Amino acid sequence: MAIIRTYRLDEKNVLHFREAWFQQFENEEVGQFVINHGSVGHMSTTSDVQDVDNDRADELFAGFLQACADEGYAEISEEDQSWVIVQYALKSASGTERDHYLEKKAKEALTGHLAWRGLGTVESSDFAPRKINIRILTPAPKLAVAAIKTCIREAKLDFTKMSIGTAEYATPEKLKSVHPMPPKPMTLD
Predict the structure, then answer these.
(1) Under a CB-based contact definition with an 8 Å cutoff, are residues 35 and 46 in contact?
(2) Which domain of life does the UniProt lineage start with (predicted)?
(3) CB neighbours (10 Å) of residue 125?
(4) Which H or E run includes 5?
(5) How many CA atoms lie within 13 A of 4 on its CB side?
(6) CATH: 3.90.550.10, 3.40.50.150, 3.30.70.100, 3.30.565.10. Which one for 78-179?
(7) CA distance linking residue 19 with residue 4, whole number of Å
């Protein structure tokens, strides 16, 4: 499923997003073309076109891109975004079955919560000695941090063992702790 994400700042310096994707159903020749849009950090609005074949999807993507360009929306390169790292402390060096379950559930919850608000994508996760790292690429790190805290609480995942750090795209190793306060040293390994 290909997805196109675009953003623009309005005259009040509020970041807005629009995204579109074509989702084809398994063993079906047709699918749906979906457009999702809103202010970054707020729940988005979605519309779709049903029973779309590949040729029609290409036409809809072209129209979507033209409308975005006409209204000042553009894609943001990865290099112009930031990393937000959600980190969980583990009781053992390699993690337990419970920790693997926590990683899976946290990634699922964060993926949906952030995507529907234009706040970025969960790119990867890994286990380092005594910690889980979940890497999120975002155009709005401050808004993403606030949304992550809300998401983890709502999903009833272990909020007390979680730390959050931010870093520039090019230098993820220069992670700065932003939660909990006061800041504590934070590393990926």
Answers:
(1) yes
(2) Bacteria
(3) 18
(4) strand 3-9
(5) 21
(6) 3.30.70.100
(7) 5
CB 37 within 8 A of CB 18: yes
| Contact predicate 41/117, CB 8 Å | yes
Give the percent of the chain with pLDDT over 70: 99
Please, what is the Cα angle at 136 between 35 and 38, to 5 degrees? 30
**Domain-by-domain residue ranges, the chain?**
3-70, 78-179
Q: For the CA atoms of the chain, what is the radius of gyration?
A: 18
Of 89, 180, 177, 93, nearest to 141 (Cα)?
A: 177
What does the block give as tokens for 107?
Answer: 């990634």
pTM of the model: 0.91
Paired sense of beta strands 121-128 and 82-89, if any = unpaired
- The string of pLDDT tens digits covering residues 76-110 is 999 999 999 999 998 888 888 889 999 999 999 99
Specify the DSSP class assigned to residue 74.
Answer: B
Paired with 163 in beta bridges are: 87
Q: How many CB atoms lie within 10 A of CB 157?
A: 17
Task: State residue 138 phi and psi, 5-degree precision.
Answer: -140, 145
Sign of the Cα pseudo-torsion (177, 180, 181, 187, in order): negative
